[in-house]
Structures are given as C-alpha cells and as structure tokens.
C-alpha cells in the first residue's frame, strides 16, 4: 500500500469509529457512499478497526464489529459495539502531556507571527491544566535555534508582511556551492521540524522550496513581489515536487539497496528475480544522480536514458584509472629502499 493510500485509510479510520457510534446501524453501501470509497474498501477498513481497542487487546477491550456477517451479506448493516470509551473526555497521562508541551514549544519557536498567538494560548492552557491537576508538570525546553536561522526567518517574515522581494545566499549541498538568488517569497512552511521557504526563484525561473537553515543571509529588497498564479503548497505528501522539466530515469537496485525506494520519492517500483528492484524517478540535477551512482557502485545501475548511463560509466572508468595511477605501490617502495 502506498503512503498516500495508507494516509487516506488512517484518516477514514479516525472518522469511521465516531461516525458508526453516532449513527448506530448503517447500511454498508451508505457508509461507502458517505466516505466516497467502494464497499470493498470499507470492509478492509473495518477489518483494521476490528483489531483496535484499549491496551490489553483482549476480547473485552477490542472494538466489536460484525465484519463476518458483512462478508456474507454486502447489503447488510454495519454495527459497532464496545467502543463507548471513544465518547469519553480525553485525559492525558504525564508522558502524553509532556510530549504535547514539547511539541507546542517547538511549534512556537518556528511559527509565524500570525499563528504564534494561537500556539501560545494553547500552550498556556495546557500548562495551567497540568499544574492544577494531579499530573506532574515536567519542565522541558527545546534547544534554542541558531541566531542566523532565527534572523533569516524573521527577515523572510518581514518580506512576506511587506510584500517585498528578497535576496538570499543559499547553500546547495549537492553541488557544494553557495548561490545568490532573488526570490518572491510565497510562504514559510514547517515540515519534520525544519522551516522551509516556498518562493518563486528568479534564477531558476520556477517555484522552489528552500530550507531556511541553509540560507546564510537574507536581504529584503525595495521591489515588490511579483504575482504568480500558484496554488498553496501542501507538504502532507512530502517535500518533493516533480517538474515537467525533470529527467525521468530508470534504475536497477540490488537486494541490499531496496531501502532506496522508501527513502527517495520514486515514481514506480518493480521487483526483479534477484530480490532487487527496478525504479523510475524524476531527477532535476544529473550531478546529484551521478554522485549517488558513484557512491553506491554496483548497488545502483542507471538503465535509462542510455546517454546518462554512458556518461556515468565513463566518469566511473576515469575515476578508476585515476585511482590506479595514483595508488601507492608497496613493491616499488621496497625496491627503492633496498637500492
């Protein structure tokens, strides 16, 4: 199951239990229609929900659903039982409360001015409720961000508020260089604890996503931002966003390299007889792929396009010849000492 379909199913499961509890007995086809999926998909969801419940996971703790009856009667009614605890008010344990406080403080440090007030208000209520209750309040502090990162984020927020362009010095790790770019800031986004700048880059003449901790300096310009007809970027599906200009390549991965298909955003995956994989992915920077191929050697082979495969093979052969030419010859060294 793909990450997108897994995420969709999780969203349905979170809504399905309270939906059934509130509705009582509901025809299977009606449930499917309400959730905009097929009855077969709802049955798959119910099989997962059937295995959920309170810690202990014995017969008395699991949610009870008439899954077997629905398998024999697709037009039957869906019934849920032993799920009354879902309607109870949520009580946080000390570990849960501490984890939530940590998350809110991290969010507070990276939130924009517009959302900071909401986060502060929520954090204050949670801390007050924890101190007033029986739960011990654990004093946790998130490490302070580097001053350069905080300054860059503040400058970008100012550019957004004043509708101005910005000039940034951006470090590109894949090319080991710092580039000078003029951008039209669109939004500051948070993903996996990192702050990103969504912006239109005039150097690339395209929309780009910049990690703010890789921006070494920011200057807010006097020129107004140019307007671009762009939809808000959604990072829920991940950071990678392919471009029509990207090169689509096909790779063969050995069995020890199967992790590659989970770590990088591939377009398709096919198993091979030797337990390896063939994958396709969109590449915007050929140099990045060249470095990967040189790094993983025989574990990663470029199959298509043929021109790129030939270039990578040529670079690998040149590197091997250079290594042999500069290798330390122990026999020659011993002979020289003997003479």
Automatic annotation (TrEMBL):
| Domain PafC HTH span(s) in chain numbering | 8-128
Q: Name one Pfam family in it.
A: WYL
Instruction: Describe the location of the WCX domain by residue ranges.
Output: 248-320
Domain (WYL) spans 154-219
Its protein name is: WYL domain-containing protein
